[in-house]
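Interim report to the steering committee. The following record documents the input for Cytoplasmic protein (734 residues).
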Amino acid sequence: MDALENLPPEDPTPESLALEGLVITRRLRVPLGAPADAVPGWGETAARQLDAALLSVGFTCSPALLARLAGLPGQEVVDLGVRVLAAVRRLAGDHVRHNAYFIDFPANVPDTVEFWAGLLREALLDPVTALDPASARVRPSTIDLLSLPGYGRYRHTYAELLAAHAELVPLAGDRVTVLEAGGSLESEARDLYFSLAGSQAPLAAEDLAALRSLASFCAEQPEDVPVRENRAVVNEVRLAAGLPLLVDTVTDVLRLACGASGGDVTLAAPTRFRSFRRAERRALLAALDGLPPASHGDVTRHREQWKRLGERLHPHEFPRFPRAVQVFEAARGVRKVAGLGSQVEAALSAGRTADAVRLLENAPGALLPRLDHLLRTGSSASAVLDTAERSAGRASGRVLLSLREHLQNRLAPAAGRVFVNRYGRAWTTPDGRAPLGEETLGRLLAILDEEITRRLPDPGELIVDPDVLDVALPLSGKAVAPGLGMLPRGSLSRVDGELLRFFVHWRQAGQRTDYDLSALMLDAAYGDPEQVSWTNYASDFARYSGDLTDAADGASEFIDVRLAEATRPIIIPAVNIYSGEPFDEAAEAFFGFMTRDAEQEGRPFEPRTVRMKSDLRGSGQVALPLVFLRGDDGAWRVKWLHLYLKGHPRFNQVEGNRVTTSLLVRSIVERDHLRVRHLADLLRAKATAPVTTAATAIATATGRATYIGLEAPAGLPPGARVYTAATLHELIPA
C-alpha cells in the first residue's frame, strides 16, 4: 500500500507538505487530485485573489488551474494558496526582506573616496561616536576602515527603504511563470520520483535529497536506476524495507552502506559507518556474495572505506557468504586482486596499447572516455576505431554524448583545458595534446551520431521552441543547484531589458559572515579588467548598492548595470567570501539576477523581474554563477558557469582573483558545449511526421507530438511528450 494513499487531505502532515512543495517548485504544478463537482461558495473569488497575489511575484495560474480552484471550497483554496504562494516566493527569492545599504540605490550612490572620508570624519568629530570605544580604532597610524562606526550595517529600516522608492511599473516584459493544475499528490510525487531515479545524468545534492524524500513515500521502485549515486539512494529505502537490492558491482554496496550511515554516496568524502542491525548486515553481505569475484578489483579504489565497513558488518559471522569474505580480504591485502584500471595502466606503461584496447573492449564505459589518449599512443588508429564502433552500442547514452562533446572540441585548437569537479571547483591548464586527424575525428563523430540517433525515440510531430536550442544538455547536474530559471553549465540565453541587476542574499548561522558581491568587466580579449565592488562603488555604467559585513538578520547586496551604456562586452558577477561561514554552512545564501526597462523604478528587489535565482553552495570561497556577453549583433546573452574558485581562507576580493577568473570564464565561454540543438537535429532526421520549429505550430499539431522548450505551452495535443528546462535530463537516451 502506497504511504501517500493514507495521507488525509484535510490534515496534511509535514511530510506531505514537503512533497507538495517539491512538486510545486520542481515541476510548477499544483497537486489537486481528481476533479470533483464544483462546490457552491466563494472558491472562485479566492482563486482570483490567489492569482492576483501570484502575479505580484511573477507567477500566474493557468486557465485550467483557475477553473479547478474555483470549484473547491473557499477555505480550502485559501489554505492551499498560502502554501503555493510561500513556495513560489521562496523560489524567486522573495521570502526575505531585501534591504540595501544605500537607501536610494541605484540613485545617489556616493563616490567611494567621499564615502570613506565621510565615515572617517563622522568617527573623529561626531560627539556621539567620539565617546564610543570604536572611535579609538581610528587613532592609530594604521586605520581599519571596515571597523569604522556605521560601516557594514543597515542605517535604515526596510520600511524606510520602501518609502524611499516608487511602486514598480508593471510592463509586458516582466517575467510571468505559469503554474499548471496537477494530479493527486500521490501521482505527482511518483512522477517526480521516477524522473529523478531514472535520470541518465548524476543529480545535484539537492536532487539526491529530494529523491531520498520521495523514495520514502513511493512503493514502486524502478528496476533500472542507471546512475550509481541515485541507485544508492533508492537502495537505502529497499534496505530499510527488506526489499531486494539493486546492485551489480561491489561499489554499489559500499555506496549503499555510506548512504544508510548518513554519509556521502558519491564516495568523495569518508563516511563514519553506523552499527547495522543483523538483518541489514545479512542483506549487505548477501548482496556482496552474489557478485562474481571478477568485480572485486574495484575494492582497492576505496580500500580504507572497505576496511571500516568490514569492522561494522563482521563478515566472519556469516560463513555462508564466502565471496563477501573475499571482498574484505582484498581490502586488507590478504588476497591480491587486479582491477581493470590497474591492468590497463600496466599495459599502457609497457607500451602494449593493443592489449589495453582488448581489455577495455568489454568495458565500453571505460573505453570510450580513453579514446583520445589511446589514439595518441602511436598504435593503429584503425584498430582503436574498430573497437570503439563495436563497443558504442553497449555504452550509456550519457557516455556517448559526453564523448561527442569532447571530440567536437578537438576540431580546433583550444586556448586551454578546463576541469570541473563534482562541487563546481574548476581549474585550467594549457592544452599540450597532439591534434587528432580530421579523418579520425570525422569517423568517430559519425559513429557516435549514428548510435545516438538509433536510441532516440520516434518524435512524431517534433515542435521545438527556438529559445531552447542553445541550452546545453545536462550531462551532469552535480554542480547545478536547482532554482528559478536555472540551466546547465554552458547554456546560452538572451538577456532582454535595458537594466541588469544581480543580487546576493545571505544569513549567517553562527558567526559574523561577510559576503561581497562584485562584477569584473573585461574587453573582448578578456583583458583590461575593471571592477565594481566594495572598493569601487561605481563605473561609467554600473553601481554597487553598498557593503554589508554582518548578516545576523540577513543581508542583501546588488549591482546595477546599464547595458546600453556598457563599454565592456564581458561582465562577470562574483560572490566572494570575505570572512565567516562558507556558502554551505550559512543559514541561507542565494544569488540571482533581474532585468528591467529604463522606465521601471521600484524597489531594489522586485520578484516579478527576477529571471534566475538559486542557492549558493560548494567548498569554494568565490562563486562564479554566470557571465554576461555582448555579441557582434549588439545583443546581450548570459552563459551559465556554475563555478567555484578555491580562493583564500579569508579576505577574498575581486582584485585578487581577476586572472584566474578571466582564464576560467574564457575556457567555458569558448568551449563548444553539446546543446539541445544537436539532439533536435538528430530527432528531425528521425521524425516520421512533419517537423516544425515554431511554437505557433502547436495549434496545428494533431497526431503524436514531441515538444522541447523552456516551458510547456498551452494547447499541446493529448499524450504529447514534453521536455522542459526541468526535465531536459529525460532527453538523454539510455
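Residues 44 and 67 are 8 Å apart (CA to CA). The committee is asked to note this result when reviewing the revised timeline.
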